[in-house]
Amino acid sequence: MLRCIAVDDEPAATRLLAAYIQKVPTLALVGTTNNPLEALQWVQEGRVDLVFLDIQMPELTGLQFLKICGRQCRVVLTTAYPEYALEGYEHDVVDYLLKPVAFDRFLRAVQKAQTLALGPPAPAAAAPAPLGAPAADYLFVKGESKNKFLRLNYADILYVEALKNYVSIVVPGQRIVTYQTLKDLAQQLPQPAFLRVHKSFVVALDKIRLVDGHTVYVGEAAIPLGETYREGFFQLIRAQSQP
After folding, report:
1. Are 62 and 55 in contact (CB under 8 A)?
2. DSSP code, position 243
3. Is 225 helix (H, G, I), strand (E, B) or coil?
4. Please, which residues have CB within 8 angstroms of residue 225's CB and are 6 or more apart in sequence?
5. Residues 71-94, buried b or exposed e (16+ Cβ, 10 A)?
6. Could you tell me if 194 and 205 are in contact, meaning their C-beta atoms sit under 8 angstroms apart?
7. What positions are modified (4-aspartylphosphate) (predicted)?
8. Would you say 47 and 3 are in contact if contact means Cβ atoms under 8 Å apart?
9. Which residues pair with 153 in a beta bridge?
10. What is the distance between the alpha carbons of residues 181 and 165, in angstroms, rounded to a whole number?
11. SS3 for 123?
């Protein structure tokens, strides 16, 4: 059981987080506050395991809170400003939730916190990693302004399309355009979870719905299978289909 508090100067935000916390049987709501100094006192008294923390607050910002708090508890940042993501992760936060926070995204952050709370697993016999399992589960891409970066979870990416010196990264319900070449981005993506199928396309292998001739379907998108990539692609597909 993780003891949780929600810290935000917006009452609606703390009410939402409190409701989410109370829905999860493995979480216990210690309290909510709009005063980060009060929250810091709770942490220093050892009453808290996990803090859902806003960044933009009067008196003490979330990032200042992190510097003072150190590693006394786990922290999940909640904010409407994605540009603070990199600095937040420098303080080893569990996760970074963008407002408005969806419940499924909240649950993923909780699962990360619970995994960290359990500590490293006991040594066991080495086993091969599942095909395409990434070493990390996210990457950062540059946003539309200086020093703005957007975190993207690998699991959310459907496919990537080259647009000259830009790439278009497609996730459910959204298309993100960033200044980067497809070649450079493809080197960042875990292999073979992401596969180059055309000079202009990289697809997430587990998001492929159908392969019909020389066309790969990811959701409703029909992506051409380039001649250069066909042999390697079909070899991988056949290997995946083996019992």
Report:
1. yes
2. -
3. coil
4. 197, 198, 211, 213, 214, 215, 216, 233
5. eebbbbbbbeeeebbeebbebebb
6. yes
7. 54
8. yes
9. 138
10. 5
11. coil
Please choose, from the candidates 49, 55, 59, 15, the residue with its C-alpha nearest in 3D space to the C-alpha of residue 33.
15
User: What is the C-alpha radius of gyration for the chain, rounded to an integer number of angstroms?
Assistant: 21
Q: Per-residue confidence at 123, pLDDT binned at 50, 70, 90?
A: very low
For residue 178, what is the DSSP state? Answer: E
What is the DSSP-derived secondary structure letter of residue 67?
Answer: H
Taking each helix axis as running N to C, give the angle between helix 103-118 and helix 11-23, from 0 to 180 degrees, rounded to the nearest 10: 60
Which residue type, as a one-letter code, is found at position 134?
P
Is residue 69 within 8 Å of residue 7, measured between CB atoms? no
Say how many residues make up the chain: 243
pLDDT band at 93, cuts 50/70/90? Answer: confident
In the chain, what are the domains? 2-118 (3.40.50.2300), 138-241 (2.40.50.1020)
pLDDT at 125: 38
Using DSSP, state whether 56 is helix, strand or coil: coil
How are the residues of the chain apportioned to helix, strand and coil, as percentages rounded to the nearest 5? 35, 30, 35
The first and second tokens of residue 129, run together, are: 């990693």
Query: Which positions ≥6 away from 4 have C-beta within 8 Å?
Result: 21, 27, 28, 29, 30, 48, 49, 50, 51, 52
Residue 78 token pair:
């909640």
Assess contact for 221 and 201: CB atoms under 8 A: no
pLDDT in tens, 184-205: 888 888 877 888 899 999 999 8
